[in-house]
Amino acid sequence: MSLPHAILTALLEKPSSGLELTRRFDRSIGYFWSATHQQIYRELGKLEKNAFIRALPTDSPTRGRRKEYEVLPAGRAELERWVGENEQPRALRDTLMLRLRATGVVGVDADFLAELRRHRALHGARLAEYREFQRRDTARGRGTERDRVQALVLQGGVDMELFWVNWLDQAIAELADTPEDAPGPEDDRDRA
Amino acid sequence: MSLPHAILTALLEKPSSGLELTRRFDRSIGYFWSATHQQIYRELGKLEKNAFIRALPTDSPTRGRRKEYEVLPAGRAELERWVGENEQPRALRDTLMLRLRATGVVGVDADFLAELRRHRALHGARLAEYREFQRRDTARGRGTERDRVQALVLQGGVDMELFWVNWLDQAIAELADTPEDAPGPEDDRDRA
DNA sequence: GAAAACATGTAAAAAGTTACATGATTTT
DNA sequence: AAAATCATGTAACTTTTTACATGTTTTC
């Protein structure tokens, strides 16, 4: 149950409307948590019902009209409670690694290599984007605790993309000179 | 929809019962995909209904009795189809990073530093475990395509844990000498 | 023969995804 | 005034998580 807390954090950083939040989830918050606008609107509704946030007063009709939210004291308290929790790192879920493993039994082909290269390009582009954010932030050169924490999270994003780029380069190099289907003696043990 | 394909891969590597699969998901397959036994049993039922796998014949009563499955040709074909697909890297979902970001607005305290150290220890332990797997595999020194692919995936697991260990060390070092709550001039912009 | 471990399974709730619907504002 | 864009929202579905239920085999 992290989405409500991600929203509380974002709203504490800056009161926003649902669509603004959606955009911010595509950027900074989104390095490590994503959400669609449908999720966000649903969650904003729940948070408002629980009196963790409130809509800033506006003209009556709501549909199609911008609606800005701010965090109430109870919401801030809930966020503090959540930050203090102990949680386990959640299990990874990565399809590309799974598909690579599947090629071990059905064979690697040129299409799969192309897929690896496509992912390499995507991660490379994201890495460049994050580094551009870093460049801008450094130029601004601020030193509040919030800035330092945001910089750490961004550094995490950069390092994560570096992991992908480096690993994919290695995987591509290794698989590129595979003779397509050298069967070799098949056997059935799994890694102990 | 990757779980059925993860199961097909695992069963092609070695026909297994549900509980055996669960255990293998805690190890090799689990570097990048996890599943509980409930998920696995449900999915085995669906795969059997779709004639992608079949239970090896045994004595009649099924409840409490070991039931081993193997992949049928249709299942292998489905796995090949899936490996050939193009997919986007799925969005990350990491709670620790989210909580770190939240400390930017509610403040970093000693408890949160302890939580970071706890995660550091967990990732360090997993890293050691994966490296032990690598050591064993290298000792066995095999060279089939399947071995090479499994080694690549395992290397991915190692690199991923290295990312965490390094980033956490950096984060802990940086936050440890924060004077607990130097407020600084608050403002409300988000990263552009 | 009781306890522990092994093994399969069911049910309900929570979270996330996909597709669609609708109103308001701005641009041409 | 039509089209594009901004903005909020609903509905249906799938996936994942959590808690529980039950039977079988092995060990003491």
Walk me through the structure:
Two copies of one chain form a homodimer. Chain A has 192 residues and is mainly alpha-helical. The first copy, chain A, folds into two domains: 3-83, Winged helix-like DNA-binding domain superfamily/Winged helix DNA-binding domain (Arc Repressor Mutant, subunit A); 95-176. In chain A, 61% of the residues lie in helices and 5% in strands. Chain A is built from seven helices and three strands. A three-stranded antiparallel sheet of chain A has the order 1-3-2. At the A-B interface, helix 1, helix 4, helix 5, helix 6 and helix 7 of A face helix 1, helix 4, helix 5, helix 6 and helix 7 of B. The first copy, chain A, binds a DNA duplex (28 and 28 nucleotides) through residues 1, 3, 17-19, 35-39, 41-42, 45, 61-67.
Compose a concise summary of this entry:
With 192 residues, chain A is mostly helical. The first copy, chain A, is built from 7 helices and 3 strands. Chain A has 2 domains: 3-83, Arc Repressor Mutant, subunit A; 95-176.
